[in-house]
Amino acid sequence: QVQLVESGGGLVQAGGSLTLSCAASGSMFRSLHMAWYRRAPGKQRELVATIAMSRGTYYADSVKGRFTISRDNAKNMVYLQMNSLKPDDTAAYYCAATPVYGRLVNEGADYWGQGTQVTVSS
Hints:
Elements: E1 4-7, E2 10-13, E3 18-24, E4 33-39, E5 46-51, E6 57-59, E7 67-72, E8 77-82, E9 91-98, H1 102-105, E10 111-112, E11 116-121
Parallel strand pairs: 2-11
Antiparallel strand pairs: 1-3, 3-8, 4-5, 4-9, 5-6, 7-8, 9-10, 9-11
């Protein structure tokens, strides 16, 4: 079993930056593909970024060039560096993990965090 705990959310002005962190429990971390999702009020959950075991990355078009996902296997941590934030980035952000990469694309991750709120003011 893997537990994921997000942190780092908050209120920031448009154009500002935040870094989200996701701490994973257990010894499986190196065997997991990781992702960040977000859900804005009234909208469906959206895949924001993924980082595979190989450290290959994927970004949604809406965040490409502004967000950076990274992982530290020694610390069981995943990060989402968010720059040039826009009001449209306001959402609850969730960390997810799975040993099967395809499950991230289909929102079928095996493990989910509780989420951390990011609010971007204009």
